[in-house]
UniProtKB/TrEMBL annotation:
ABC transmembrane type-2 domain location: 59-294
Transmembrane parts of this sequence: 65-86, 98-121, 142-168, 180-203, 210-230, 268-291
Organism of origin: Erythrobacter aureus
Single GO MF descriptor: ABC-type transporter activity
Pfam families from the UniProt entry: ABC2_membrane (PF01061)
Compartments (UniProt record): Cell inner membrane; Membrane
Entry's Gene Ontology cellular component terms: ATP-binding cassette (ABC) transporter complex
Protein's UniProt name: Transport permease protein
Bilayer disposition of the protein: Multi-pass membrane protein
Top-level taxon of the source organism: Bacteria
Biased segments, Polar residues type: 1-12
């Protein structure tokens, strides 16, 4: 006797079992429910987010890349005329050569902050933040794409500003320690990218972001020893300056060009380099925890 096939009511089959059977025959298309499709790092998604952010600032590169070079060159002209007249030398070099590395580092940091602080904030204001939250990207991948694009913009601005500096008479950008130029330039860009991400998460409108720029970032940048050495300050203000992480980025970056800085000798510069790495690691951990909590993003 041949057994009759029993009818199967719709929805009574086991989708997990059918997937396993289909996979055994090479015909399975979809994984069972609850099983992750992407394991490890979503490389395609991370690269797509990075390229989206890079193309965003390249679409207005006149404002995001070339304008900082003009603004920084004007800073160099004004301060050189005001403070560098009479052949004034600082740290054994003429004033324009002394101030140029600090202006390059400052431009890199400010543009890194501007890029990362715009990403989430614009999405929250325009109602398009769902485009960042819905794709299969972890918090680390989301942070990596935004921070990576901000660093890319900072490096691009650094090269353009350096090229503009070379047009000014008397400026020399010969590097005494290339490792310090690369390390402190990247550490400064990473630090400001992370601070920009914090600001982007916290801010609810562009006025909030502008407040952070005007009352936190700009004062710290201007009081970082970009235009002077801190030895000429009163002891109390020297202590305040040494508590400013911007000071170590500017002075370490300058050390890479001039071979000396007001941080101290090579050992002190190496300690400052390690300190910035630790600070950035703590900032990255804080940003990751904040993104994972969904504070002011998923509410």
């Amino acid at each position: 006797m041949v057994d009759q096939a029993q009818p199967v009511s719709p929805g009574s089959e086991n989708p997990d079992a059918s997937f396993v059977e289909g996979n055994a025959g090479g015909k399975g298309r979809f994984p069972p429910r609850g099983r992750p499709v992407i394991r490890g790092i979503n490389g395609i998604g991370l690269w797509s987010l990075y390229m989206k952010e890079v193309r965003r600032f390249l679409k207005v590169q006149t404002q995001t890349i070339w304008a900082p070079a003009i603004t920084t060159l004007l800073f160099l002209v004004i301060f050189s005329v005001a403070l560098g007249r009479g052949g004034r030398e600082v740290l054994g070099v003429n004033f324009p050569t002394f101030v140029a590395p600090g202006l390059i580092a400052m431009a890199m940091m400010q543009n890194a902050f501007a890029n990362s602080s715009f990403s989430l904030l614009s999405g929250k204001i325009q109602g398009t933040i769902i485009d960042l939250l819905m794709p299969p990207l972890s918090e680390g991948e989301l942070m990596g794409g935004i921070i990576g694009a901000a660093i890319t913009r900072a490096v691009a601005v650094g090269f353009v500003v350096a090229g503009a500096m070379l047009l000014y008479p008397g400026v020399s950008l010969a590097m005494a320690h290339p490792w310090a130029v690369i390390w402190f330039g990247l550490m400064g860009a990473v630090m400001l990218s992370l601070l920009g991400l914090f600001a982007s998460i916290w801010a609810e409108k562009f006025d909030h972001n502008a407040a952070v720029t005007n009352f936190v970032i700009a004062p710290l940048a201007m009081l970082s020893g970009t235009f002077y050495i801190i030895d000429r300050l009163a002891p109390a203000f020297q202590t305040v300056s040494r508590a400013n992480p911007f000071f170590y980025v500017i002075s370490g970056f300058r050390y890479g060009f001039l071979g000396q800085s007001d941080i101290g000798d090579g050992r002190a510069v190496a300690m400052a380099a390690l300190g910035l790495l630790v600070l950035n690691a703590l900032l990255a951990l804080g940003a990751y925890k904040l993104l994972k909590s969904g504070w002011k993003i998923k509410n």
